[in-house]
Design a protein that fits this description.
It comes from Setaria italica. By secondary structure, the protein is of the alpha+beta class. Helix content is 35%, strand content 27%. It has 3 helices and 4 strands; from the N terminus they run E-H-E-H-E-E-H.
Length: 99
């Protein structure tokens, strides 16, 4: 599990009912540019907070807007950003690697 790993975990909290346009906008950016840029140094997971299986995350992470990116390292949140800007997200992920 990523929690016990020293790799960074990037959770993309997205929606399939609410905010679908902004979440769909980010999908090709993540898959085509951001994930490959980190060359396996981070785990990337997408959680649909509109799905009944993951609705608890909406409350737990206090989601107010989507897409919401939560960066976790060693089981602790180290950074978080709501954005559709590729450069902002890259900067936030890079900052999450800092000790």
């Amino acid at each position: 599990m990523a929690k016990k790993d020293s790799k960074l975990l990037v959770l993309e909290l997205m929606g399939s009912v609410n905010y679908t346009t902004t979440c769909e906008f980010m999908r090709p950016i993540l898959d085509g540019k951001i994930v490959p840029a980190f060359g396996g140094s981070a785990y990337f997971y997408k959680l649909d907070v509109d799905n009944h299986e993951f609705k608890g995350f909406k409350t737990k992470w206090k989601v107010q807007a989507l897409p919401d990116f939560v960066m976790v390292k060693n089981g602790k949140q180290v950074n978080r950003l709501v954005t559709t800007d590729k450069d902002e997200l890259m900067t936030a992920i890079n900052a999450a690697f800092e000790p």
